[in-house]
């Protein structure tokens, strides 16, 4: 099941890429997040995002990658409360990374070059990380198809898509989340690359996909439970697209309306009443387990981590 720590890791990877520094790895984020939640400061910090107003939907790219985007206004930053030093922080040997409030925004090329450097330096980062005191278990090999979604949230809580790309190929979680956190931030062609100045307005959603089952027909799935992936032929061309499990419910669609919308997302331009006339319609249903985190949650957790480094 997806966890808040996965979303914080996506924020960590994105911020590190924009700031041109090495991020914490997934295992470090998970353990520090657990410590933070055990502290008085961490109590009640995770927001209930069910009340956030949603618009737009998520659609598919091509060849196994899914894309979806929304746009967000800036969120009012709240003051950060009292800090608490993490357990064992006194053993750290290096200063904290730069703050995410840097005033300059890198170009697309610099963001992409930073992403390249991220993978090239992954081995050395494990040796030089200021958080090297954290226990490292055997490499986590849990694998899932996954999607990473970036939204922007304005001061009224209105959430809009800013980028969403995923894959139906099973990914090892650490490398998969790292890769798609950056791909969805920089390479969703419907949007310009996310900049450093946008970080305070972002929220992140991670969805792990599972339980893939061929449908007996295009309507053989359940609203609110299943995502669907379709493919079909029309006028000699093959089309395909997907919606994640929460899209239809958020939009208030029936199953037939969802299917027609999904076909249009794939590029079909026929009349709504003629959707049954396409050839060789194939449909696969699946389930998704998701988690959300806002920039505010990541920022307050990261400040707690940084203050522990400074207080060593």
Blueprint (SSEs and pairs):
Blueprint: H1 4-19, H2 26-38, E1 53-54, E2 58-60, E3 65-68, H3 108-120, H4 122-128, E4 143-153, E5 158-172, H5 173-186, E6 202-214, E7 227-234, E8 237-243, H6 247-251, H7 255-266, E9 279-294, H8 295-310
Parallel strand pairs: 1-5
Antiparallel strand pairs: 2-3, 3-5, 4-5, 4-6, 6-9, 7-8, 7-9
Estimate what percentage of residues fall within beta strands. 25-35%
Assembly status:
single chain
Instruction: Give helix and strand order, one letter per element, not per position.
Output: HHEEEHHEEHEEEHHEH
The radius of gyration computed from the alpha-carbon positions, rounded to a whole number of angstroms, is 20 Å
Tell how many strands the DSSP assignment holds.
Answer: 9
Indicate the mean pLDDT.
76
The main pleated sheet reads as: 9 strands, mixed
> In whole angstroms, how far apart are the ends?
34 Å
Shape: elongated
The percent range for helix content is 25-40%
**Helical segment tally?**
8
User: Which residue ranges are poorly predicted, with pLDDT under 50 across at least 5 consecutive positions?
Assistant: 48-140
* Computed structural class: alpha+beta
């Amino acid at each position: 099941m997806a966890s808040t720590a996965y979303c914080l890791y996506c924020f960590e990877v994105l911020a590190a890429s924009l700031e041109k520094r090495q991020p914490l790895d997934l295992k470090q984020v998970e353990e520090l997040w657990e410590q933070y939640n055990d502290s008085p400061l961490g109590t009640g910090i995770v927001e209930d995002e069910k009340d956030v107003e949603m618009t737009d939907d998520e659609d598919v790219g091509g060849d196994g990658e899914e894309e979806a985007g929304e746009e967000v206004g800036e969120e009012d930053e709240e003051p950060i409360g009292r800090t608490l030093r993490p357990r064992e922080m006194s053993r750290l040997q290096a200063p904290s990374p730069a703050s995410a409030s840097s005033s300059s925004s890198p170009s697309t090329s610099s963001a992409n070059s930073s992403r390249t450097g991220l993978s090239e330096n992954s081995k050395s980062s494990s040796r030089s990380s200021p958080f090297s005191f954290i226990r490292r278990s055997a490499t986590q090999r849990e694998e899932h198809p996954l999607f990473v979604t970036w939204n922007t949230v304005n001061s009224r809580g209105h959430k809009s898509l800013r980028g969403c790309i995923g894959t139906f190929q099973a990914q090892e979680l650490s490398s998969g989340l790292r890769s798609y956190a950056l791909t969805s931030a920089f390479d969703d062609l419907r949007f310009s690359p996310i900049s450093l100045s946008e970080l305070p307005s972002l929220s992140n959603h991670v969805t792990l996909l599972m339980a893939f089952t061929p449908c007996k027909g295009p309507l053989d799935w359940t609203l609110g439970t299943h995502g669907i992936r379709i493919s079909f032929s029309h006028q000699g061309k093959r089309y395909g697209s997907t919606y994640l499990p929460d899209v239809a419910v958020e939009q208030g669609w029936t199953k037939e309306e969802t299917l027609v919308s999904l076909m249009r997302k794939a590029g079909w331009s026929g009349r709504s009443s003629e959707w049954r006339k396409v050839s060789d319609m194939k449909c696969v249903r699946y389930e998704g387990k998701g988690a959300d985190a806002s920039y505010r949650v990541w920022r307050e957790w990261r400040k707690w981590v940084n203050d522990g480094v400074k207080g060593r």
